Amino acid sequence: MKKLNLISRILKILMLIIIIIVLVYVFLLFFSKKNNVSYDVTDKVDSYVLLSRDSDLYKSYFNDLKEVFESENIDYEKYATIISKLFIIDFYTLSNKNLNNDIGGIQYLKDELKENFILNAKNTIYKYINSDVEFPTVSNITCDKVESSTYEIDNVSYDAYLVNLKWNYEKDLGYDDEGTIVLIKDNDRLYIVEKK
């Protein structure tokens, strides 16, 4: 009788372990699919991409970026202004994002800054993307001023641009509506390194 109870307990424990393993596997499978949302690339210029989810305003400025790259000599002030606008539009238009790890504007950042930027965004402005809250859509953006400057990273000085922007939303939900984007020029390419 004791052997039968022992075998019964062992079988119950094994069944419980198998059920837990299956549940963990199903959860991980579902979780990984949910966090790997992908969008179709509809256009590309240099290494910048336009996605199917991007707003009409974003698409308009993306076309302006294409014109900058198609010109014989790149106008870096215009380039800085356009990617600053694209960054703001993509980052602050949360209405077209599905997950809190679908952070807008990442492609315009210096590689060394991306990981920290993503972590910060996921814990702040993108924190509630999966909820039923109303999210903003940038509807208009203007540039007040572009200044040439220098910017230092790890004791290396770069040519830089400071782009002052103001923007509006389809509906004012209390999000930022102005700021200064700092960009550096590194190997003939501009990267966003700071938003003030």
Layout: helices, strands, pairs:
Layout: H1 2-34, E1 41-45, E2 48-51, H2 56-70, H3 76-92, H4 111-123, E3 138-153, E4 156-169, E5 178-186, E6 189-195
Antiparallel strand pairs: 1-2, 3-4, 4-5, 5-6
Evaluate the radius of gyration.
24 Å
Residues in β-strands, percent? 25-35%
- Can you tell me the number of structural domains? 1
Distance between the termini: 75 Å
Describe the structure.
The protein has about 200 residues and is an alpha+beta fold. The chain has one domain. It contains four helices and six strands. The strands form two sheets. The protein has a four-stranded antiparallel beta sheet, covered by helices on one side.
Task: List key phrases describing it.
alpha+beta; 4 helices; two-stranded antiparallel sheet; elongated; 196 residues; 40% helix
Write a brief structural summary:
This protein is α+β, with helices and mostly antiparallel strands. It contains four helices and six strands, in the order H-E-E-H-H-H-E-E-E-E. Helix 2 packs antiparallel against helix 3.
